[in-house]
Amino acid sequence: MTELKTSNTVSHTIFIVDDDRSSQELLSDMLTRNGYATNLFSSGAHALQAAREEPPDLILLDVMMPDLDGFEVCRLLKESETTRRIPVVLVTCLNEKAMRLKGMAAGADDFINKPFDATEILMRTHNLLLVKKYQDSLKVHSEMLEEQVRQRTEDLETVISELKSAQRQMIQQEKMATIGQLSAGIAHEINNPIGFISSNTVSLAKYCEKILKFMEAQQEALLTGKTDSRDVERLQALRLQMKIELIAKDIPEMIAETLEGVERITSIVRDLKCFSRVDESEQKLVDIIQCLETSINIAHNELKYKATIKREYGDLPQLRCYPQQLGQVFMNLLVNAAHAIDTQGEVTVRAWSEGGNIYVSISDTGCGIPDEVKAHIFEPFFTTKEAGKGTGLGLSISNEIVRNHGGEIMVESEVGHRSTFTVSLPLDYAAPLIVSIP
Ligand SMILES: Nc1ncnc2c1ncn2[C@@H]1O[C@H](COP(=O)(O)OP(=O)(O)OP(=O)(O)O)[C@@H](O)[C@H]1O
Ligand SMILES: [Mg+2]
Asked: Is the CB of 116 under 6 A from ligand 1?
């Protein structure tokens, strides 16, 4: 191997790779006289190794060499990340098009021919180094830009995740506020069965006492071993006095009523638990009608004094969704419907499936919505209700939830007569994990 360092005083280092010593020196002489530093190699393999260890600014590479030829060295240089950007000039005595094409295919950046023309070589070297300089600075800039973009993306992701968590909290707070609003009614719904369960239990205890007294008397008579007609008469009188006949008729009814009361309380508590739970992170395949019924049960007390509830349910396929979020939407629409009715009216809940969507509509025969109010109802904190009765978040959150499920809420209203809110929900939509930020 011939490897000579001819100059260290200049900024650009050029590798000259040629097995012909005189060509090497001729080229080196031209370049060093013009301020370039050169490293000379007579083997392609050695030049390749040196370029990988410390990449030069340019390589002049002879095509015809005994070990690795220039095309192969060029190909290997362009293959590796560390040496890819070094400009390679193929030095050849062949001026054939086929050779140039082969050189281009190997990734060569330029060609010079033997015999050498000093001006041409210096011009080509100068141009390629200039291009490399621009490419290097472009690379530095693009790396800086990439870093900035990465940093900003990271910052944005943090902000988005904070916003999403704030929004989740807001949804949960609104849900709890709705339960707060309905709590008096829910308490009444629970108290009512508790009232008759407790009075039934007191009555059953008294009945038990009487039955036990009668059974004791029967037992005494039996134990004497000689029951006569006087005993039978006495027992008969006691039976009448204890109202055993009536008790026997009453007990099954009371037990049935008590069990029904227990079932009512259990179902209210189950609905409440289901509604107030923080939404699970996984979507579920659910029956929307069941979801609607849960919301109707919780809003029942609010609705029942104001309206008769009519249900018109079609056959619905199950929907993949966040059921508690949709339950919150239905609840808000139902409470709004109840609030819209002044004294007595009708609330109709419809659910049907059509053209790949599930539709749920809640209609009321209430006050209706004037156009100037309708324009704002989906805005956060917009309310026409007195303080304490509404925060104005219900429809904006409901709208967000429905949009997150790929659907929309439509409103039709006739002032003084009725309003209908229709929710559309596409069946083939995978809602993102958390409600999106508009
Ligand atoms: N069915 C309806 N009939 C008439 N007006 C309605 C109806 N539903 C909504 N609105 C109007 O839209 C407004 C906004 O409703 P939204 O549910 O967002 O808030 P809110 O009910 O006032 O308060 P909350 O946050 O407790 O739900 C209501 O204040 C009311 O003026
Ligand atoms: Mg509301």
From this structure: no
| Ramachandran angles phi, psi of 346, nearest 5° | -135, 140
At 371-391, the pLDDT tens digits run 999 999 999 889 999 887 788
Output the residue whose Cα is nearest ligand 1's atom 28.
Answer: 383
The C-alpha atoms of residue 386 and residue 371 are separated, in whole angstroms, by 20
* Tokens 């009232």, residue located: 195
Distance 333 CA to ligand 2 centre (A): 7
Find where tokens 């293959």 sit: 79
- 0.85 surpassed by pTM: no
Residue 312 is inside which H or E element, if any?
strand 307-313
In the chain the domains, ranked by start, together with CATH numbers, are 13-116 (3.40.50.2300), 279-438 (3.30.565.10)
Question: Which residues lie below 8 Å from residue 341, measured CB to CB, with a gap of 6+?
Answer: 306, 307, 347, 364, 365, 366, 367
Tokens standing for residue 14: 């050029």
Q: Confirm if 366 and 418 have CB atoms less than 8 A apart.
A: yes
Q: Can you spell out the DSSP letters for 283-307? A: -EEE-HHHHHHHHHHHHHHHHHTTE
Ligand 1 in reach of 373 Cβ (< 6 A): yes
